[in-house]
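PROTEIN DESIGN WORKSHEET
SECTION A - STRUCTURE
LENGTH: 261
TOKENS:
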């Protein structure tokens, strides 16, 4: 197999000592150092993009995030000397990234709809100016359907009319990623489930099936849980009380899955 990262396996260097290779990932504390901020919620725990970027790309490779929200993926790319392209509908938020991320890496921001073919064209045009044809790694952290509304825009996946509409929109994003990512290369998707009308909707499973339909090969499924902080502990007691008074289990974890083009 060809080399997909910069780890020095031959000399058994410790540059990958902290890389987790198990499928259960319990994270005790969010990385807060450097440019990461707790201001925006519902973002990646920085350790997630950090581990994937180090394991699946090399220095100067291109990482694409189609739902950037706060600056997590871009900050990690800057830290690790990877070029980054990010997309989001939310211009106010992503404008800040322009000044936050240093020009030492190539950074390109598309304030547009990730489901649109025109987004692909903008990215391809940019890559051409850098004499590149493809993206090396895609990280996707879409809204978990309508659990949190990110905007009032109809193009926003969090405003989809139904689970099926949400999946159709997500499918279009996946098609776009398939066009952009290099053959045999990788896409990571992070997503959790939701409850609706007293029923658990396995969004992660539906999204995974969508990705497999769109001709990505499933390589791994990771179950991830962010462990206790004081707030979570307090909320947990209330949730436990509600669950015991009803008929369901509390879901704490989210899913991350790795697919290969
Ligand atoms: C869960 S957040 C991503 C969090 C991100 N990983 C982080 O660490 O901050 C989802 C983002 O998707 C964006 N979004 C939703 N629908 C979109 C679309 N059609 N095109 C582009 N961005 C979209 C929202 O504006 C929101 O910023």
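SECTION B - SEQUENCE
RESIDUE ASSIGNMENT:
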């Amino acid at each position: 197999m060809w080399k997909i990262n910069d780890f020095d396996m031959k000399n058994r260097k410790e540059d990958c000592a902290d890389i987790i290779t198990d499928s259960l990932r319990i994270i005790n504390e969010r990385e807060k150092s450097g440019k990461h901020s707790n201001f925006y919620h519902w973002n990646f725990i920085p350790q997630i993009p950090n581990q994937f970027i180090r394991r699946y790309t090399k220095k100067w490779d291109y990482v694409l995030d189609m739902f950037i929200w706060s600056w997590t993926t871009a900050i990690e790319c800057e830290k690790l000397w990877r070029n980054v392209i990010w997309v989001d509908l939310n211009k106010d938020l992503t404008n800040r990234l322009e000044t936050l991320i240093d020009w030492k890496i190539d950074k390109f921001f598309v304030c547009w709809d990730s489901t649109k073919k025109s987004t692909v064209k903008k990215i391809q045009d940019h890559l051409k100016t850098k004499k590149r044809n493809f993206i090396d790694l895609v990280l996707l952290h879409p809204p978990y359907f309508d659990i949190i509304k990110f905007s009032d825009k109809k193009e926003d996946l969090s405003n989809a009319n139904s689970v099926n509409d949400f999946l159709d929109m997500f499918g279009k994003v996946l098609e776009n990623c398939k066009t952009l990512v290099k053959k045999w290369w990788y896409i990571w998707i992070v997503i959790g489930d939701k409850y609706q009308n007293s029923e658990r909707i396995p969004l992660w499973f539906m999204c995974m099936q969508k990705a497999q339909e769109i001709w990505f090969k499933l390589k791994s499924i990771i179950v991830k849980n962010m462990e206790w902080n004081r707030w979570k502990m307090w909320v947990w007691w209330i949730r436990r009380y509600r669950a015991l008074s009803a008929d369901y289990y509390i879901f704490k974890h989210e899913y991350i899955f790795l697919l290969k083009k």
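SECTION C - NOTES
The CA atoms of residues 4 and 163 lie 35 Å apart.
The pocket of S-adenosylmethionine is lined by residues 42-44, 67, 69-70, 72, 87-90, 113-115, 141-143, 150-151, 155-158 (CB under 6 Å).
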